[in-house]
Structures are given as C-alpha cells and as structure tokens.
Description:
Elements: E1 11-18, E2 21-30, E3 33-43, H1 53-66, E4 73-78, E5 84-90, H2 95-109, E6 117-125, E7 131-139, H3 140-152, E8 156-162, H4 163-166, E9 177-184, E10 187-194, E11 197-204, E12 207-209, E13 215-217, H5 219-232, H6 235-238, E14 243-248, H7 250-266, E15 270-275, H8 280-294, H9 310-318, H10 320-375, H11 384-395, E16 402-410, E17 414-421, H12 424-436, E18 440-448, E19 454-462
Parallel strand pairs: 1-4, 4-8, 9-14, 14-15
Antiparallel strand pairs: 1-2, 2-3, 5-7, 6-7, 9-10, 10-11, 12-13, 16-17, 17-19, 18-19
Amino acid sequence: MKWIPKKRITSFLGLTLDGQRFRAAHVRRNKNEVEVVKSLTTLLTLDAAQNEVDLLGREIRNALDAAGIHERVCVVGLPSHWVMSQTTKLPELSREDAQSFLEMEAERGFPCSPEQLQIVRSSCRSPEGSVYVTQLAVRKEQLDRLFAIMKAAGLRPAHFTLGLAALPEVIAPAGRGQITAALDAGEATLLVSSDGGIAAFRTSDSSIESEAGEQVLNAAAVARELRLTLEQVPSELRRGLNRLRLVGHPTLVAALEESVAERARLTGLTLETAASSEDDFGTAVAEALARRALDSETALLEFLPPRPGRWAGLVARYHSKRIATISAAVGAVAAVLIAAFSWQGYRAWSLRQEWDSMKTQVGAYEATQSRIREYRSWYDTSYPNLNILKRVTEAFPETGSVTAKSFEIHTLSTVSVTGISRENTALLRTLDQLRKMPEVQAVKVEQISGKSPSPFNFTFHWNGTPSS
C-alpha cells in the first residue's frame, strides 16, 4: 500500500482576542507567495473573560461572516496578561535531572500548582556560555475556555501561542539581544530576547484616564516598568542586549520614545521605532500569527494542550488487534466474575449452615452478656476523644508536609487544630479531606499566615456518634 502524505495546510486564520478587542487576518499561500486575503478589527459587545461561551462564539462567528472570512483553521494569539514567566539559570545536569530541576522551579515560582498550568520553555545562552531557561505558563482553565469559544464560533484551533513573539524581528538571532516594547490600547507588553530565545516577558497595564474620559497609556509608568524588567534580567544576559525596539500605536510609541531615549543612550541601547496606524498593530499581530503558522520551518511557542485527532481516535477505537485484545480481556473478566459469584454463593450457603448450628448457643451467650452489662459499673468503651483524633490524623498527608502542633476538643463537639504547613496545596487537600468526612461539619480556617512554612489554625464541629 502506498503511503499518502499528510496534506499541507495552505490557509490560516490568525486571531487575537483580549477582553472585547477582536482582530483577525486570513492569510493564504499561493504557490510561493503568501497573501493576506481579508482582515478584521472590531470591538465585541461581550467580554471574553466573563460572558457565556456560546454567546461569545456566536458573536465572533457573525463578525467573521460579516467580514466575508470563512476560513476555519486558526492560530490564536493569547492575551499577554494571561502569561506568567520566570527565568532560571540551568546548571550542568543530565536531561532527566534538568527536567526535574525546572519542574521544581516552576512549583516554587508560579502562584499555583504546575498541574494547573500549561508551561512552555524557551532557552537562550549568555555571551559567557551559561544557559538560561524562561518558563512561560498559562492557566489550563483559561486555555480550555478559549478553546471552547473557538469551537462555539465554528473554528478549529491549530495553535495557541504568543502574538508578540510571532512578529518579525522580535526574537533576536543567535549572538544578539534586544528588548521589544509593544504598545497597544493602554497595555504595554515587554519581551526581552537573547540568542534566539526569550529571556523575560512582562505585561503592564499602565493606562490613565485622559481629559476626554478615555484610557491612554502612561509613558512614564511604561518607562518605569521597562527599567524594572531590565533589572530582573540576569546580568550575564543583560550584557548581551544592544537594541530597544518600540512597536505599536504611533502616538504611544512617540510618547515612550521621548521618555526612554536618554536612558537607552546611557545604557548603550540602540533605540528603534516601528509605529503603525491605530488599528494596524493588532491586525499585524494576527497576520504574523497566520504567516508563522504557514511557515513550517519556524516553530511557534505552543500552548495548545495536545488533543488526539479524529482519525487517530477512530483508528485507536476500531483497530483489529485492539478489538481482539479488548475482547479477550472482557472474556477473562467475565470468567473471573462468574467464578467469584459462584464462590460467593457457596460461601454464603456454608455460613448459613454454620450459623444454624450455633444460633441457640449464641443467643444464650448474648442474654448472659446483657445481664452482666446491666449489673456492672458503667464506662464508655467508644473512646470518643481518640476516635476524633484518629479521623483527623487520617486526613493529614503522610509526607509530613502538614503537621499539627496542638489538638483541642471542647465538649466533645468543637475541635481546634493548629500547626505548620510547608505547602499550601497540601493544607488545602487536608481541609478538603476533612470536609468529605460525614462526622465533620463547619470546617473554618481561622488563620493561614506568612510564606512557607506557614502556621495555620482551623476549627470544625464533630457530629460523630460514640460508635463512629
């Protein structure tokens, strides 16, 4: 059988969706030439972060149809303020150890668990030869919502990536370093690149209200953010930076150029500007996304979680060997279940026979025990305090990441626990385990303070019976 190669995509729809601002550019390849078929810039009535997915998808579909854009395959530029970043110097380690090291850095540096994030890494090398890795992270819940919006609009997302990184000349080539400041609609995005990779990424909402009541960019605040970002770049990488590029809205670019020109000259940075018209910058980003997606030789920073294709799912579902394996497994499970039920029936019959032979003696013994309990001194055999302590201990992790220092029980119902937590996520899982216990009610966190290790104090109401 002759292998049929996968058909190359010759048309992409580049999209950016940030709040209510929506930009689109349909780019198509004709032989060796890439052309922009149609583009769209509009302000939606619904907000991407707040309104229902179906309604927002329908509005996007209507906007694309009104503009005559019918392409379904798209590449989406993520909102810059979604992206969190951290830069780490990578020591000389094996590939497996380097992976573990970066995972620990991500857990330590990002505000939530790495399992809740989609993380993309970009590496660069300093002039001295040291390797630095920048980890860029986006919450998976945000990506899932964006994917659902695109599906509701009848689109097929092929890539989720950084819009600014797709623009030409933003990522510095090998041996060079530069800072790019993108200014658009009251938001400034700063990207520091070095040696073909990303060294820092930061977004600043530095807008102020003008006399006309509109939100405009505060050039002084952006200049300050630029200085802070530059200071956060490791000194080895900072020495390789030689250019500062300002791109975006012409008025904003001119204002920022005036604020940073002197400092750029003193720090040895060559200042360049690439201003565009008011609506062209967002459209240029959407166009650059589509062009980069068409260019198979240029890799994108991919934030789209892997999803199996329709054909791969069908093959996996109906593959003959897989069906044979599944059938054999089902037959084996059925045989085991039949044998188990047969043994259970025989065992139940034998136990009933055994019970019938001892029922009279057991009745007499229970009557004697009842009389003994009636005439001897009373004491509680349920150990309620120890039972409460046992149930609370079961909720704590075995790793020792959450430990209790004191345990107080008042009137066998109100319980107070204080201790130390080295991981906030472990403490939250402990509280969730307590809330799932039927005897525990009204779990209330009284205190969680400080950084790791963090002291905590929580209380709850015990509603268990003496036999719990």
